[in-house]
């Protein structure tokens, strides 16, 4: 639901960087979206398309890179890729611990690459 | 031209959240997050009434439409300001800054921010608070912490509301607690009922300790 606000944030950053590099048209915008961020990628794409429609950036491509949830086990400290969903909430593959994992990555939402002209 | 960058999408909000943080020095600032109908406003009504002689408090109310909640809060005698998000699904730090201009912030002990009822979007937006307070009601189902892990990961306290209804609903407290603590091992969970006034003592104890921590250490 908040994807429009996020798309606006991404576009603001992109346009600021373009201006700094004397570009006027955005061609590609790459963002990393963590699995824990609660972002629906389809909604983000839709919001982005709606924002650039009718502007010089209309043909810009939004490239969303999904970053998996990486956890460190609260018990044996091993690092593993977590999942979440009913019945499969991130048990440690090594020792089976379910409680107290630390989130190493999967929360981020960042602009990582731009192409413009 | 190719331009490598690493910039947080929410950086504009986070800059404003730091401004909020500067303005709430010494004031315990709590961001209340829950689904619609979980009992945020009832919790506030109870808390404001019970602790009014002890603390100076204020409330920022986020609402999609209507000022029903703000009126309920104002009826307790505590100063309240309403942010009408006009359909927006979350509050952001800019709205909090503007709302604070309408509050007398001098000598406040606690500033409550009642976010828009929603377990997803409000969690992403830092409002400059000291703690996110998660509120989950037993009528919502015990799988909420599994479905919406981010709130339970970031919350500093979780209130399980409407526990007087436990005999009538299929809600496994242990299961909900286990998943809520999966990414937040030491999360305090208090079982409360605002309408029956049960279990609130633990919440008030947490509030008193947190007010002290904020005043003495500047953070929780």
Brief descriptors of the model:
heterodimer, A: 117 residues, alpha+beta, hypothetical protein PF0899 fold, 3-stranded mixed β-sheet, 2 helices, 26% helix, elongated, B: 220 residues, alpha/beta, Rossmann fold, 7-stranded parallel β-sheet, 9 helices, 36% helix
Overall description:
The complex is a heterodimer of chains A (117) and B (220). In chain A, 26% of the residues lie in helices and 31% in strands. By secondary structure, chain A is of the alpha+beta class. The longest helix of chain A has 18 residues, at 3-20. Helices cover 36% and strands 21% of the residues of chain B. In chain B, helix 1 (11-23) packs parallel to helix 4. Chain B has one domain: P-loop containing nucleotide triphosphate hydrolases (Rossmann fold), CATH 3.40.50. Chain B has nine helices and eight strands. Chain B is of the alpha/beta class and 220 residues long. The chains are: A alpha+beta (117), B alpha/beta (220). Chain A binds chain B through residues 1-2, 5-6, 9-10, 12-13, 17-18, 21, 23, 31, 36-38, 71, 74, 84-86, 89-90, 98-103, 107-117, and chain B through 1-13, 88-90, 92, 118, 120-121, 123-125, 143, 146-150, 153, 178-179, 181-185.
Give the domain tally of chain A.
1
Query: Biggest sheet of chain B: strands, sense, closure?
Result: 7 strands, parallel
- The portion of residues assigned to helices of chain A is 25-40%
Query: What's the order of the H and E elements of chain B?
Result: EHEHEHEHEHEHHEHEH
Number of domains of chain B: 1
Quote the beta fraction of chain B: 15-25%
């Amino acid at each position: 639901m908040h994807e429009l606000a996020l798309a606006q944030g991404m576009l603001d950053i992109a346009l600021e960087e373009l201006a700094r590099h004397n570009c006027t048209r955005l061609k590609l915008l790459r963002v990393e979206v963590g699995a824990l961020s609660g972002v629906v990628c389809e909604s983000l794409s839709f919001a982005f398309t709606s924002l650039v429609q009718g502007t010089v950036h209309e043909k810009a491509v939004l490239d969303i890179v999904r970053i998996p949830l990486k956890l460190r086990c609260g018990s044996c400290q091993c690092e593993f890729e977590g999942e979440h969903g009913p019945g499969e909430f991130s048990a440690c593959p090594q020792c089976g611990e379910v409680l107290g994992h630390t989130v190493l990555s999967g929360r981020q939402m960042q602009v990582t690459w731009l192409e413009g002209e | 031209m190719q331009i490598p960058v690493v910039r947080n999408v929410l950086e504009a909000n986070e800059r404003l959240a730091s401004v909020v943080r500067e303005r709430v020095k010494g004031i315990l600032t709590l961001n209340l997050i829950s689904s619609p109908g979980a009992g945020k406003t009832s919790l506030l009504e109870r808390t404001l009434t019970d602790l009014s002689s002890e603390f100076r408090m204020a409330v920022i109310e986020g609402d999609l439409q209507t000022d029903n909640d703000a009126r309920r809060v104002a009826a307790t005698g505590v100063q309240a300001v309403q942010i009408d998000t006009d359909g927006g699904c979350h509050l952001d730090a800019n709205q909090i800054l503007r709302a604070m201009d309408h509050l007398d912030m001098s000598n406040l002990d606690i500033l409550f921010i009642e976010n828009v009822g929603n377990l997803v979007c409000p969690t992403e937006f830092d409002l400059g608070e000291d703690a996110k307070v998660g509120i989950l009601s037993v009528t919502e189902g015990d799988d909420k912490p599994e479905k919406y892990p981010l709130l339970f990961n970031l919350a500093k306290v979780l209130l399980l509301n409407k526990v007087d209804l436990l005999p009538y609903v299929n809600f496994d407290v242990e299961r909900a607690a286990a998943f809520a603590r999966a990414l937040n091992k030491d999360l305090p969970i208090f079982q409360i009922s605002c309408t029956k006034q049960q279990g609130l003592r633990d919440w008030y104890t947490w509030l008193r300790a947190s007010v002290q921590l904020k005043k003495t250490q500047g953070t929780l």
